[in-house]
Backbone:
């Protein structure tokens, strides 16, 4: 009897030990790895907020004077509601006439305008003419900025250009803006103290934020936005395309 | 009788020591490789390393920009099958040049919409709830997601994890220059 007790007790203990050990092993076998330093950052440039989806925005009137203007993106008017010449103008987007979206877009445009107009430090544009220049990213300031011929903006996809015209912006017929490298139209901003005018058959890159009116002559094309704070936008057989982000 | 009692106490002590030792020996929860056990190994790697950086990386994001799909390849290089996988997301503020408003990390994460979240060819988006109730799944929601008990990896097997993130298009000027750094931890369990 004594010898049996000596055998049974260790056997019971061994069973308990094995069961306990097995349970721990099964529940604790794991290995973890980590992916770190995944960074997402918003650009340090004016953001349009509710105006982001608008390619044409006016205070009083959007008028397509003649011909077939093609717009890719939304157009809006606020606080007034006049939209004239659509059709024949084509909008691949939504027309917002004095609705809440257009009203908010005007509010956010005002914020972006103030931001862009106040950016420093800046480089003064000699003689207010942009013709023939090849500019790196930066802030450029002038009075009545003008462009004849070609302006080249060279940089990478995250580079930002801000042009500050104290009064007007005028581009001549057939003038061109060329984006060099991987520069994007979405990152080019034109803040205009009064009105902007784009010449016939010109090609323009960037987002125009004009305090007053914006006029595009026949055949002018824009990759960007034409946003007028306190006046009208007038079009004539144009192509306006929302820039890719 | 005293001898038997003494022997029992010794045995209990031995069992306890071995149990604790076993428990301590069989837990491994770090990013290093080669977690070896007598009975085999369970070793999870990312892209054939013990960890990876900058899978998802973008600065200067314009509203509407999509980053990804970015792919992480998870592989069990051990000899023991992993039954389940857990994924945990976290993030911290990592600004560029924010404006005076300087949004918080949570606010920035909430405008980073997750448009694609796949593991092993299956979408995980339906497993993530809209925690902040903004109508879409974003990085903020991932922080609170319970992505546990996903299909594991057999010894030697690998699966891809894919993620795409889009910066919402209508964000306002207050977000400029703001950013976050995201950490993704994958845990393979037997």
Residues:
């Amino acid at each position: 009897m004594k010898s049996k007790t000596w055998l049974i007790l260790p056997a019971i203990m061994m069973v308990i030990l094995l069961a306990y050990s097995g349970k721990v092993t099964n529940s604790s076998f794991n290995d973890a790895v980590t992916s770190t330093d995944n960074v997402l950052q918003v650009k340090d440039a004016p953001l349009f907020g509710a105006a982001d989806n608008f390619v044409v925005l006016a205070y009083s009137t959007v008028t397509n004077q003649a011909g077939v203007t093609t717009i890719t993106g939304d157009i809006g008017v606020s606080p007034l509601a006049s939209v004239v010449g659509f059709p024949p103008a084509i909008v691949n987007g939504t027309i917002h006439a004095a609705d809440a979206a257009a009203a908010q877009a005007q509010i956010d445009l005002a914020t972006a305008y103030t931001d862009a107009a106040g950016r420093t430090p800046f480089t003064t544009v000699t003689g207010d003419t942009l013709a023939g220049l090849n500019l790196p990213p930066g802030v450029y300031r002038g009075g009545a900025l003008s462009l004849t011929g070609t302006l080249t903006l060279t940089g990478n996809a995250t580079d930002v250009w801000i042009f500050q015209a104290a009064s007007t912006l005028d581009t001549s017929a057939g003038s061109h803006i060329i984006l060099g490298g991987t520069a994007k139209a979405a990152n080019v901003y034109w803040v205009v103290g009064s009105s902007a005018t784009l010449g016939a058959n010109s090609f323009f890159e960037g987002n125009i934020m004009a305090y007053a009116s914006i006029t595009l002559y026949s055949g002018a094309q824009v990759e960007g936005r034409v946003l007028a704070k306190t006046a009208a936008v007038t079009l004539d057989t144009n192509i306006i395309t929302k820039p890719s982000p | 009788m005293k001898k038997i009692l003494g022997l029992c106490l010794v045995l209990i002590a031995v069992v306890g020591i071995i149990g604790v030792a076993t428990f301590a020996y069989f837990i491994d929860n770090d990013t290093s490789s080669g977690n070896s056990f007598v009975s085999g190994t369970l070793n999870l790697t990312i892209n054939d390393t013990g960890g990876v950086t900058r899978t998802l990386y973008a600065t200067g994001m314009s509203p509407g920009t999509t980053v990804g799909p970015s792919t992480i390849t998870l592989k069990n290089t051990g000899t023991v099958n992993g039954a389940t996988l857990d994924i945990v997301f976290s993030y911290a503020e990592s600004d560029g040049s924010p404006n005076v408003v300087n949004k918080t990390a949570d606010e920035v994460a909430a405008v980073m919409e997750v448009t694609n979240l796949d593991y092993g060819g299956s979408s995980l988006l339906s497993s993530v709830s809209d925690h902040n109730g903004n109508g879409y799944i974003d990085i903020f929601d991932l922080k609170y997601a319970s992505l546990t008990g996903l299909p594991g990896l057999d010894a030697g097997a690998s699966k891809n994890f894919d993620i795409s993130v889009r910066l919402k298009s209508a964000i306002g000027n207050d977000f400029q220059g703001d950013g976050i750094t995201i950490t993704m931890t994958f845990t393979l369990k037997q």
Summary: Chain B has three helices and twelve strands. The longest helix of chain B spans residues 2-25. Chain B has two domains: 1-30, 40-189.
